[in-house]
Sequence to fold (602 residues):
Amino acid sequence: MATPPWAVRIRRADGEIAGSGILLGPDRVLTAAHVLRRGEEVVAEFVGAGGSHVPRVAARVAGDSYRPEERDEDGDPSGDIALLALDRPRPPGEATTLHRLSAPGREVRMYGFPADFNGGLWLPATIVGGCGRDGQVQLRPPSPAEAARPGFSGGPVVDLATGQVVGMVLAGPSEPVGGYSFMSPAETVVQHLPEVAEWTRGPAAVDEELRAPEPGAEQAPLDQPFAERLARWLRGDAAVRGDGAAPQVKISLVPEDDAARAATLRRAITLADRELRTSRSTRRASLDGPGTVPAAGGLDLALYVAGSDTATVAERIALRMGLGQHRELPPAERVAAARVTITLVVVGVDAAADPASLLDLLAVLVAGGSRMLLAFRTAGEHFARARDELLVRPAVQRRQQLAARCARICETDAPALDGLMARVTGDAEAADLADRAVRALVHVIAVRAELTAGRGPFALSPDRAPDLGHYERVAARAARRIPPALAALSELRDRRNELRGRLVNYRRVYEEGAARTEDLAADELYLAAHRLLHERPCDVPAAEAATRAYVAFVDGRPGSSSPPPPHERQPARDGTPLTPVQRKPPSEPPGAAPHPGGGTPQ
Fold:
C-alpha cells in the first residue's frame, strides 16, 4: 500500500498539481491529455522513489502521442490520453507495465495526488462495466466521497487480485456526481496510442484468425441480419425488442464455405474489442449499417479453437480472468473455482482437438455466470449437444422455476394479500405498499396465464424463446413488494382486533357503572366506533380515533375506572375476538331506558 515508485505526481510551472501519471519506461510517463497542453512543459515528481528528496524531472508530450478528449455528436467522450517524455530517464526498475485483463466486477484501487492529499492517496472501487463508445470503463467506489477527484486524472488503476496496473484514471469531477469514477483500460489506451503496446503485457483479447481486415482491404459482403443479431448479443441489449435481456448463451452456425457469414463474425468481434476498434467505429457517421455495431468492450476474449486442445483453451481463459497464479493447479480447475465472469466468443468449437471435453469446460463457465457465443462449422453431434446442454435444458429449467415461483405467488401470496385488503385499510404508507404489491401481482398473474396457456413467447420452444430475464424480474419484483404489504396489513388487522377487544371491555365498564338513564352521547360514540371496527375493509386509523373518543368519554365519567386487562374471550370462527354483537350483554332490569334504535345495548 506504499506509494509505488512508478506513480507520478505532475505539476505545472506555477507549482499547481495538474494530475497523476504512470511511469511505463525509464523516460516515458502515461497520463491524461487534459493534464497539460500539447506544447506545455510540466514537472514529473516521483514521490515513491527512495531517498530523502523527491526527484523532479521536466517532461513534455512525446512527439505526436497526444489524444485530447473529443466528443461525438451524442456527447460520448473518447481519447484524453497522452504519453510524456522525460528530460532525464529514471532507473528501469522503477517503471511498471499495463496489463490486459477482463474487467467486469473486479475490485481495484485508484491512486492519485489530490490537493488535500498531495502525498498520494489510494481509493477503492469496483469495475461496473463499459460506458460510451470509446471503451471507457465505469468504476463504482464504496461511497461518493471515495470517487476520483482532480489530482487523480492520469493515475493508475490497480487490480486488487493480481496487483497489476489495468488502466488509467480519467478526469474526476470537482464535486463527485453520483459517486462514480472512470478509467481507460489498457486496451483502450493502446488503441489510441499504439506505441504504448511496448509496455503492455498479457495476450490480446482476440486471436489473429478472428480479426477483420484493415480498412481498405477487400472484404466479403456483410450478412446484415446476422450482423444485427451479433451486435445485439454483444451489446447485451435484446431488451430493445421488448422481449427481455440478451440470452446468456448464443450458438451460431458459420460454415467454412460461407465467406459472408465468417467475415460478418470477424467484423463484429473486431468492433467489440477495445484495442482493435478504430476511431471510425466510434462515430455514427460511419459506413456501417445501422444496428450492426456492437459496443466497445462487448467481449472479454475471442478464441479460435480449431485444432486446439482443451488445456490450452483453459489456460488462455485463466490468463484473461487474471488467474495466472497457482500454476500448480490445472487451468480447468482454476477456471472452475474462479468467481470471475467473462463474455467469451469461441469459434470453431466442433473443430477443436477434443470438442467433447471443450464443451465440458464451457458448461462450467456458463454455470458460473459467464456469457458465451459459440460458433460451429457444421450442425453435427457437438452442435446438437451444445444446443441441448447449454440452451435447451437451462431454458427448460428456468421456465419451470419461473412457473413454480409464479404459482407460489398466485396461490399463496395473492389470497393472503386479497384477504387482508378485504379486511383492513390504513394510512397512506400502508395503502402505497398494498398498491405497489397489487400492481406487481397483476403482472405476475399475466405471466402465469401466458405460461400456463403457452401463449406469447412461451409458445416457442425454450431455446428459441426470448430470454426469461424480463419475466424473472417481474416475479422477483412481486416477491419483494408483497411481503412488506402483508406485514403492514397484518399489523393493521392485529390492531383492529385489539381495538375491538378494547371497545368491548370499555362498554362493559360503562354499563356496569352507568346510571340507569339514557346517555345519547355515549351511545353515539360507541356505535360510531363499533361501526368502523366492523366495516369491510376497516379503516383502522379512523376506527382507532373513534375508539379513543369512546374510551376518553368513559374514563371521564364520575366514578368510572379503567377496565382490567381483557378477560379471555371465546374466539370467533375466524380466530378474532368476539365482537360486542357476538357477546350476550348483561340483562337490564325492568324499566330500563330502551337502547337507541331498539333492543338491548350490544
Summary: Confidence is low (pLDDT under 50) at residues 238-244, 564-602.
